[in-house]
Amino acid sequence: MEPVLTCEGLIRRFGARTAVDGVDLRVEKGETYGLLGPNGAGKTTTISMVAGILEPDAGSIVIAGRPMSTGPSPAKRLVGLVPQDIALYPDLSAEENLRFFGRLQGLRGRRLDARVHAVLELVGLSDRSRDRIDAYSGGMKRRVNIAAGLIHEPALLILDEPTVGVDPQSRNQILESIEALGGAGLSVLYTTHYMEEAERLCRRVGIIDDGRLVAEGTRRELVAMVGEHDRIVVSAEGDLDSLARAVKGLPGALDLVRGPDPEHFEVTTASAPGLLAAIVAAAPGAGASVTGLEVREPDLEAVFLHLTGKALRD
C-alpha cells in the first residue's frame, strides 16, 4: 500500500543556517507517527513544508500520490493542519468556526452539516457547539482546533503539540480522540514535548536534532539502537543475598544491582518475559520467597537523551 506521506531529502535553509538537512520521512495509512526533537531541531520547519506553507530548497513531498508545493496543489486538500497556536475566531461559536473552515474547504449543504456534527462529536463538544470560543477553556479551544483540521476529512492530519497548556482532563480527551482517529484509519503526523504521549499514541517515532533525522523506528527498535535493556525489580523475603547470587547466574541476566532497600534488588536483562519465571523458580532453592516482580522497560526519554544529549523539553 502506498504511504500517505513520503518525504525524500528535504532541505530548508534560512540564510546561512540549515534548519532541515536531508530529512526522509514516511507515514503509512492509519499510522500515528511521532516527530520528536528539542526546540530548534527542525520540527516546525519540517511540518510547514509537509503542509505546503514553506517550499523546500531541495527534496520532495508526496501526499497520497500527489506532489506538495506552496502554490496551488491538490495535495493541500489532503492535509489537515492543527497548529500549536489556536487558529480560531474567538467571537464566533465552535459551530460557526467549523462551518467557516468547512466552506473554505469546499463543503456545502448536508455534507457540511454532517461533518460539523461528526467532528464536534469526536472532540466531545456537541453540547457546547453554540458557545463562543472566547468562553471556552484552553483545553476546549484546543479540541475545536483539532476539529477544524478534521472538517474536510484529510488523508493526513498534522498535529503540532496539541496538548500544550491544557488541563489533565482535556489532555486525556484529546489523546483519546487521536487514538480513535488512528483506529479509524487516519494517518497522523504528531509532534509533542511529552514523551509519554509519543509512547501512548505513536507506532513509530522519528527523532530529529539539528535538522537531521538521527533515528527512526518503533520504541523497541529505538531502544535496541542504544543498547537499553529491561529492568526487573525483585522483591523478596528470606535470604535475599543467596537469591541475588542465584539470579545473577541465570541465563539472560546481564547485571544485578542491590539498592538501599534490603528487600529489593534490580536485575538487567535483554528480555524480561523469559527471566521472570526463572527468578520465581530459583527462589526456594536460595531460601527466599518472591513477593513481587516489577518490569521497567526502557523508555524513549532515555533513548532521546542518549541520541541528542538533550532532554526533550530543552
Distance between the termini: 37 Å
In the predicted model, the low-confidence regions spanning at least 5 consecutive residues are none
Name the strands of the widest sheet in spatial order: 6-7-8-3-9-10
CATH H-tier superfamily of the largest domain: P-loop containing nucleotide triphosphate hydrolases
Which bin fits the share of residues in helices?
Answer: 25-40%
CATH topology of the largest domain: Rossmann fold
* Shape call: elongated
Order of helices and strands: EEEHEEEHHHEHEHEEHEHEEHEH
- Give the total of beta strands: 14
Radius of gyration: 24 Å
Highest CATH level, the class of the largest domain: Alpha Beta
Tell me, rounded to a whole number, the average pLDDT: 91
Total domain count: 2
**Structural class per helix/strand content?**
alpha/beta
CATH architecture designation of the largest domain: 3-Layer(aba) Sandwich
Total helical elements: 10
The fraction of residues assigned to DSSP E strands is 25-35%
Description of the structure:
By secondary structure, this protein is an alpha/beta fold. It folds into two domains: 5-224, P-loop containing nucleotide triphosphate hydrolases (Rossmann fold); 229-297, Alpha-Beta Plaits, CATH 3.30.70.100. Helix content is 33%, strand content 29%. It has helices spanning 43-50, 94-104, 109-122, 138-150, 168-183, 195-201, 219-225, 240-248, 273-282, 300-308; strands at residues 5-14, 17-27, 32-36, 58-63, 66-67, 79-82, 156-160, 187-191, 204-209, 212-217, 230-238, 253-258, 264-269, 288-296.
